[in-house]
Design goal:
Blueprint lengths: L11 H16 L5 H22 L6 H10 L8 H22 L6 H12 L29 H14 L4 H15 L6 H15 L12 H12 L4 H22 L6 E2 H4 L7 H10 L4 E4 L2 E4 L1 H11 L2
Antiparallel strand pairs: 1-3, 2-3
Helix pairs in contact: 1-10, 2-3, 2-4, 4-5, 4-8, 5-8, 6-7, 7-8, 7-10, 9-10
């Protein structure tokens, strides 16, 4: 499915925030390698946990950390959940390697990622499906398996040629992949990795779709199924904004993220008031693992606006 830039709408205010944060981050490059490594390790853990949880994995964040870092087996949890966590973390590492190697999108690269994601879970990981499928709850049925190679050729071509703003193209990359549904299973996990591969190649930090956002994630994907990518692109843009703020907080003192419960102690505003303003988009804030964070810089700018 082809799109033009004007077909996909993201609020200008959100795009402007992203532009400003990316410019600030770019001005700090090259970033300290040790700090970047620490950030990527944290995102790797959270991405693995949330990406798996969206698909029904029962490991908690702390259990996922123990499985990945200590190699522990969590009592009472299915073996499948352990395999999924290890596979997704390994696939995240592979995705980072592909970015550093300046790999281009290709069917071979995508199949390699799927092979890592689904090894030990499917009989033939990395191979396109050889049967037609239905997705529970989805309005549209995925294309015939006989068309997959041709559709994936077109998919790669559109990634290379469609003149879309990067976040809009990231939304196309994600949605079009799950629309084609080239594999019998694991398409969502691969789509999330491909989205981050593209964002990283274009100078953006990787994003994490949190399990708490699962309903919104699927709802906006459903809207994209109906032909409008705007809601899904806006959803991804909000996550890019959060990720940029997370990066900046590690390198700029005034951008350091603090829970609103802490920031409220430094003002006359209550935590509940600041949370409301954050949800309304009036206060520049991000939500990480269901907790709202902001910065002293953002709070200072908000106070200036409301006291004018």
């Amino acid at each position: 499915m082809k799109y033009t830039d004007t077909d996909i709408l993201i609020p200008n205010s959100l795009l402007e925030k992203i532009k400003q944060k990316k410019q600030k981050l770019d001005s700090l490059r090259p970033l300290p390698e040790d700090a970047v490594k620490k950030i990527i390790e944290d995102i790797r853990l959270r991405h693995t946990f949330h990406s798996d949880a969206i698909e029904g994995n029962t490991l908690t964040l702390q259990e996922t950390k123990l499985v990945l870092e200590e190699g522990l087996t969590i009592g009472g949890k299915p073996l499948k959940d352990h395999i999924e966590a290890k596979n997704d973390a390994e696939a995240f590492d592979l995705m980072i390697e592909f970015v550093h190697a300046k790999k281009k999108f290709s069917q071979e690269m995508i199949q390699h990622i799927h092979e890592v994601v689904m090894k030990g879970l499917l009989n033939h990981p990395g191979q396109y499906r050889t049967q037609n499928v239905r997705i529970t709850g989805a309005k549209n049925r995925p294309p015939s398996y006989l068309k997959i190679v041709e559709l994936m050729d077109n998919y790669i071509h559109y990634i290379e040629t469609l003149p879309l703003q990067p976040i809009k193209k990231a939304s196309f990359i994600h949605h079009e992949f799950v629309r084609i549904h080239p594999f019998i299973d694991g398409n969502g996990r691969v789509a999330r990795l491909l989205t981050n591969f593209y964002l990283l190649k274009n100078g953006y930090p990787p994003l994490v779709i949190q399990k708490q956002e699962r309903r919104k994630y699927y709802k906006t994907l459903h809207m994209a199924d109906l032909g409008d990518l705007s809601d899904f692109a806006t959803f991804l843009a909000s996550l890019v904004h959060e990720s940029l703020q997370y990066y900046l907080s590690s390198f700029v003192e005034e951008e350091q993220l603090e829970p609103l419960s802490v920031l409220s102690n430094e003002t006359d505003y209550s935590q509940e008031y600041l949370s409301l303003r954050a949800r309304q988009g009036k206060l520049d804030a991000v939500k990480i693992d269901n907790i709202w964070y902001s910065s002293k810089r953002a709070l200072k700018e908000y106070r200036k606006r409301v006291t004018k």
